[in-house]
Amino acid sequence: MRESVSDMPEHCTVEAAMEVVGGKWKMAILKHLTAGPHRFGELRRELPSITQRMLTRQLRELEADGIVHREVYPQVPPKVEYSLTEIGRTLEDVIQRLEEWGAWYRAQGLPKAADRDAG
Question: Cα angle at 57 between 14 and 17, to 5 degrees?
Answer without folding.
Answer: 10
